[in-house]
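Posting this for the archive.
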Amino acid sequence: MSGYPTQDTALNVETASSNEIADALSQLSRIAVLGDDWEFFDPQDPCTVHVIDKSAGQNIALQLIGAEFDLKRDAHTKNYYAIMKHGATTVLGPDHAPLRLFETDTYHDVFFAEGYLQALVNKCQQSLARAAHPYH
């Protein structure tokens, strides 16, 4: 369990780093569809987060630039889930269906995860703005 958070903590997404927010997403692994570990591999790139599923040996890179998230409800299972979009284009998974990032039967949990995802997008946008205007 080295490297994983060992206790629940309150997280202020305004002051937390991207890595701290990614760690918070990792704590939501019980509702994660893609993987159980969210990481930024390149400290110079706050706009590409990797979702790792260690049991499947899979690593999916998600581009946060211009990302938006929608919360949906599955008509069949009645579960709530979060998907990612870039403009009008929905990010698709390997099965060519909308890529579900988190899914559970309670709206609250998916809503919480979506808030963390949006916080990562905000951190990415802030970083891009600082890079474009380094003296402001």
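Strands lie at 37-39, 48-53, 58-63, 67-73, 80-86, 89-90, 100-104. The longest strand covers residues 67-73.
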